[in-house]
Every structure is written in C-alpha cells, then in structure tokens.
UniProtKB/TrEMBL annotation:
The keyword Zinc applies. It holds the Pfam family ADH_zinc_N. Gene3D superfamilies: Medium-chain alcohol dehydrogenases, catalytic domain, NAD(P)-binding Rossmann-like Domain. This is Ribulose-5-phosphate reductase. Zn(2+) binds at residues 38, 64-65, 144. Residues 25-133 form the Alcohol dehydrogenase-like N-terminal domain.
Length: 341
C-alpha cells in the first residue's frame, strides 16, 4: 500500500511523498496522533546542520517524539485503537555491554531515516509501548525527551560517587526543567540547583532548591555533580563554568548537542579528577523505567503539563510550517502538533 510521508526536502520546505509499504507479519501500523518538536528537528528545519549532513540526510521526515494509535497489528501485541508511544531508536542487534542507543548499527527516526511525520508509522512490537490510561496526550507526546533525561540520570546514578549533597543543572530550557524534575524526584534528599541564563524561565522551576543566573553566581557555590542541558553555542561556556563550580572527582553529564567543537578546560578536568559522561537518546528500558516512575510519582505529570506550549492542529503542510515557526519564536515549552493527517 501507499503511505503519505511529509518530508523536509530542504530547509523550511516540506513536501508530501508517497512511499510503498509492504504489509508483513512483523510490522504494526500506527497512526500518529500527537507529535512534539525537538531541537534536533529545528536544526534540520532551519538548516543549521552543516551542508554535507543536510545533503546526506534530506529529504527526510522529521520528528522523533510522538504517540499514535494502533490501526493494524498482525503480531497481536496490541489492540486496534490502543494508544502507544513510538520509540525512535531501532536496534538491529543486542550487545551485553553497549546499550541499544549507543550501538553504531542502531537506526534512529528523523536522523538517519524518516521520522514520525507520516500517515502511518510501521514498527516492530518492541518499538511501541502501550500508553497508560488517563495520561495527558500532550505530555505523552514528548515522552522521548523525558526518557533521555531518565537515561542520563540512571547513568549518573550508576557511575557518580556517593557524595550527592548538591546536584547542579546548567540550562533553563525544556531539557533542564525535565532533568532537574527527575533528579528531585529520584534523589529527594539532594539539593538540586539550576544555573541558567534567564531568571524568567527559571521561575518555572518551582520544585528545585535554588536557581542562579550564570552571570551572577555567588562565590563559593559548589556542586558535587553537574548536568549540562544547554547545547548549541552556549555549550562551551556552560561546560567551563561547570568545571569551575564542581568539586573534585565530580561527574559532569553532558547532554546538550552542538555543531561546533567545544574548547574545554582540560587542565582543570585533570586537576580535579573529573568524569565527563556523554548521554544521547534512550532505549526501551528507559521508557519502561520512566513509565514506572510516573506511576510512583503521579505529580511528575502535573509538572510536565506546565511545559506544554503551543498546540497546533496539522491538516496541511502550511500547518506544519506554522508549528515549526511558532516553535522557533517561543519563549519556552514544548510545541505539540495534533496530527490530523
Ligand atoms: N542528548 C540528547 O539525547 C538530547 C539532547 N538535546 C539537546 O539538549 C540541548 C537543550 O535542549 P532544550 O532544553 O530543548 O533547549 P533550549 O534551547 O530550550 O534550552 C537551552 C537553554 O539554556 C540557555 N543557556 C544558554 N547558554 C547557557 C549557559 N551558558 N548556561 C546556562 N544556560 C544557558 C539558553 O538560553 P538562550 O536560548 O538565550 O541561549 C536556553 O534557554 C539542545 O542542544 C538539544 O538539542 C535534546 C534532546 C535530547
Ligand atoms: O534529540 C535527540 C534525541 O532526542 C538527539 O539530539 C538527536 O538524536 C540527535 O540527532 P541528530 O544527530 O540527527 O541531530
Ligand atoms: Zn530529540
């Protein structure tokens, strides 16, 4: 059968193409319902990736955060009409050491192949998870982003030393909000301190213990471990400020994505004996763990609802452009597309 795929042809230009999909016994058909825009999608949409990357990856359907409804399941794993979270990471092998999101052979929707802006997404049963009942679909749409923070917090917990009195989070955007929220819920006895550029944005981080503007951090403010949730051109400043404010033998978790190489003060990384740990994407176990955390702490959902931003119904390519342009000009929050295609 033919599937309509809404691909980014070149920066700021989408087109609908028709792709043949063969029905077989292993692929479940899902109709996307709520999709959420990530900074990675914006880098393709605005053409801020380097030319070679754009040439290699486009045309490609964007979006790797989303939920949908099962319309056909030859595997009998889900019921028709059931809402599911779509997992964009697609592993092709298992490894006893390397997690699915770090395997070089893994594929990723909206990075190396079409993302979720399609009429139907076809997926193996292990790439879908049943959405719990009564979950707000606008929040569920960005489960992938929350699972990335969950994954990084888990990695931190497995590797960082046990002095965890103060945990620093650099950044004041969506990823910083989510990471500090998960840290506070997971380690309620630790102080979570946010270091951001905009006090107006940090005012929404009501659940943390302190916030500082990065231009006026009082002398003597130190953290045991830190999370970098900035990315882009702010990466270098954030990472170097972390190096200045972290105690010896602390762990720095880097999550921000940047196109440029980032100069960092390696002398002080050495002198302080720091561990720098990168975290990218997430895997099925992270989604499952996160859904368990939602069950244990239902108020996480209330906090996540606060970062739902614009909600835009998509019926045409012009609506898609409107969603991406709105997202560029937002102050904060996640832009959600109600996928009515
Ligand atoms: N590792 C992964 O798998 C994932 C990584 N990401 C990446 O994480 C990064 C953050 O994402 P997101 O929160 O959505 O992005 P945002 O752009 O919303 O957040 C970053 C925020 O940090 C602020 N900022 C800039 N410089 C500094 C600084 N030196 N110290 C503290 N704060 C600063 C920015 O302000 P201003 O805008 O004024 O510069 C902005 O408000 C992005 O690079 C994104 O691509 C996202 C998802 C998954
Ligand atoms: O957003 C992300 C995961 O949620 C990552 O930033 C994204 O996977 C990076 O992909 P790309 O290399 O295509 O920018
Ligand atoms: Zn993303």
């Amino acid at each position: 059968m033919l599937n309509t795929v809404y691909q980014l042809k070149r920066p700021r230009q989408f087109e609908a193409v028709f792709k043949r999909i063969d029905m077989d016994d292993s692929q479940i058909f899902v109709r996307p319902t709520y999709l959420s825009i990530c900074n990675a999608d914006q880098r393709y949409y605005q053409g801020t990736r380097n030319k070679e990357v754009l040439k290699q990856k486009l045309p490609m359907a964007l979006i790797h955060e989303g939920i949908g409804k099962v319309v056909y399941d030859p595997t009998d794993t889900f019921q028709v009409g059931e809402s599911v979270i779509m997992i964009p990471n697609i592993p092709e092998e298992q490894d006893e050491v390397v997690a699915e999101n770090y395997l070089l052979s893994s594929r990723f929707c909206a990075s190396g192949e079409d993302g979720f802006m399609r009429e139907f997404v076809t997926a193996r049963p292990d790439r879908l998870l049943k959405l719990p009942e009564n979950i707000n679909p606008y929040v569920a749409a960005f489960t992938e982003l929350v699972s990335v923070a969950y994954h990084a917090v888990n990695r931190f917990d497995r590797s960082a030393h046990m002095r965890r009195k103060r945990l620093g989070v650099w950044g004041d955007g969506n990823l910083a909000y989510i990471t500090s929220l998960l840290l506070k819920k997971r380690f309620p006895d630790c102080k979570v301190i946010v270091f951001g550029k905009h006090w107006q944005k940090m005012a929404d981080f009501t659940f943390v213990d302190a916030t500082y503007e990065i231009t006026s951090i009082p002398q003597g403010v130190l953290v045991d471990h830190a999370f970098e949730c900035v990315g882009g051109s702010g990466s270098s400043q954030a990472i170097n400020q972390i190096i200045d404010h972290i105690c010896p033998e602390g762990l720095i978790s880097i999550m921000g994505v940047t196109e440029e190489l980032v100069p960092i003060n390696t002398r002080m990384v050495l002198e302080k004996g720091l561990t720098v740990k990168g975290s990218s994407r997430s895997g099925r176990d992270d989604y499952k763990g996160l859904l368990g955390m939602y069950k244990e702490h239902p108020d996480i959902m209330d906090y996540l609802e606060k970062i739902v931003g614009a909600r835009i119904r998509i019926r045409s390519i012009n609506d898609i452009i409107e969603a991406f342009e709105t997202d560029i000009h937002k102050i904060s929050g996640k832009t959600i597309m109600i996928w009515d295609k």
